[in-house]
Each structure stands twice: as C-alpha cells, then as structure tokens.
Amino acid sequence: ELYDEKDSFASRFKKVIGTATHLAGIPVPADFLPSIEWMDFLGYIGAMKETQKEIDTIIGHWLDEHIQRRKECQGTNFEDCDFMDVMLSNIRGDFFTASHNKDT
User: Fold this and answer.
1) Rounded to whole angstroms, how far apart are CA atoms 4 and 38?
2) Per-domain residue ranges for the chain?
3) Residue spans of alpha helices (H) in 1-104
4) pTM of the full structure
5) What contacts 4, CB < 8 A, 6 or more positions away?
6) InterPro entries, alphabetically (predicted)?
7) How far apart are CA 52 and CA 31, in angstroms?
8) pLDDT tens string for the chain (104 positions)?
9) DSSP 43
10) Do residues 97 and 91 make contact, with C-beta atoms less than 8 angstroms apart?
11) What are phi and psi of 2, to 5 degrees?
C-alpha cells in the first residue's frame, strides 16, 4: 500500500479517537432518563453512533491487512510485531469459520 493511504488511516483514527473522547465527556439527557433516548435532543447519540462506525471501519481495515499479511507469510517464520498480530496468533484457524466472524 502507498504511504499516503496508511497515513490517511492513521490521521482518520487520530481524529475519530479525539471525537470519541470529546463525546464521551458530554452528559447526554438520555443517560439520566433512558426513555427519552429516541429524542436525541442535541444529536450527541447520533454523533456517537457515527463515530463508532468510523472506528469500526478503520479497525476492520487494519484487521483485514493483518489477516492478509499473515496469509502471505504462511509457512515462513512470522514474527508477532504488534497487538493485533499477537491477538490473531492466539485465535485458532477455524475461529472465523465457526459461529464467529471478524465483524463481531
């Protein structure tokens, strides 16, 4: 992949984590009265859901990259070099084909 694309995901991730941190600190009326969540007076709940979708998209892309890299390096001495690689090395090979998939 091109350096710009990786940089793009990194900058998107940095921005979305900043947004998530900001939104996590805002008191939402529905936190106190859950029955009014559907109203979403100030739009914070919608913003939180959109932020979560963006985080999920970015992490899903990174997970796909790691899985692809592991497939390409199969049979060679693959070193676990970051957190995702360590987590993937602890998953059985049939994990994604059983009742689970990477999206859950």
Assistant:
1) 40
2) 3-76
3) 3-24, 29-32, 44-72, 83-89
4) 0.71
5) none
6) Cyt_P450_sf, Plant_Cytochrome_P450_Monoox
7) 18
8) 445 555 688 889 999 999 999 999 999 988 899 999 899 988 999 999 999 999 999 999 988 988 888 788 775 666 657 788 778 777 766 555 555 565 55
9) S
10) no
11) -75, 150
DSSP structure string for 77-100? -----SHHHHHHHTS-TTTTTTT-
pLDDT in tens, 37-56: 899 988 999 999 999 999 99
Exposed (0-12), middle (13-18) or buried (19+): which is 47, by Cβ within 10 Å? middle
**What b-and-e string marks burial along 51-77, b requiring 16 or more CB atoms within 10 Å of the CB?**
beebbeebeeebeeebeeeeeeeeeee
Task: Give the C-alpha separation, 49 to 43, whole Å.
Answer: 10
Task: For residue 81, give both structure tokens.
Answer: 């070099």
Q: Which residue has the tokens 């998939």?
A: 101
What amino acid is encoded at 65 in this protein? E
15 vs 73: CA distance, rounded Å: 32
